[in-house]
Amino acid sequence: MIQDYQIQEFLRQAHRVGDAGLTLCSSGNISWRIGNEALVSGTGSWVPTLPKEKVSVCRISDGEVLNGVKPSMESGFHLGVLRERPDCDVVLHFQSKYATVVSCMTETPKDFNVTAEVPCHVGREIPVIPYFRPGSPELAEAVKAALKDHNSALMLKHGQVVCGKTFDEVFERAMFFEMACRIIVLSGGKYNTLTNEEIDDLESYVLGKKG
């Protein structure tokens, strides 16, 4: 049973995403697993100012809407990722300024590892998803497949999607994704990336510190 305090926390986190400039007006959507159900921003809602009455409650297993509020058109990939990734409780689709520019480039970067934060938080490899109509079953399947073994993905001519265990993890992932793309765009394509050896050394250090 979804509690009011959980809805309030979901709203707080949605507004945090908007305040950070990760979404604009009705762009983007967010979901949060609570037991066997998920809170999903409602269709046509503005994440930066998401109100309680635009929060949809869906059953994760089959997508059935439990409170009469229609979820985002992208709920197919939100629920699909939550089904595929029991280790992840939050999914965020965002369209931040520079990362969205990168998604529209004629030549998509092959390597986003411009700083240590990228392989540590966003992902050593970021899958690039071909363009599919927003809200389409094809896009939902493509996102689900991309995030099966990754935590971040770039959707061509559309935006970005990240997943994680907590709101903080997902927020950090999205912010560093945007930071990397800002560096790529502002450098005019003349940027350095970490070598495989540097990333291996970095990962060993981080894992060693965590252990």
Automatic annotation (TrEMBL):
Q: Name one Pfam family in it.
A: Aldolase_II
Outline the extent of the Class II aldolase/adducin N-terminal domain: 8-185
Name one cellular component (GO) term: cytosol
Do the record's keywords include Secreted? no
Keyword tags:
Lyase, Metal-binding
Presence of keyword Transferase: no
What's an example of a GO molecular-function annotation for this chain? aldehyde-lyase activity
The residues the entry assigns to the signal sequence are: none
Listed GO biological process terms: pentose catabolic process
- Put simply, this protein is called Class II aldolase/adducin family protein
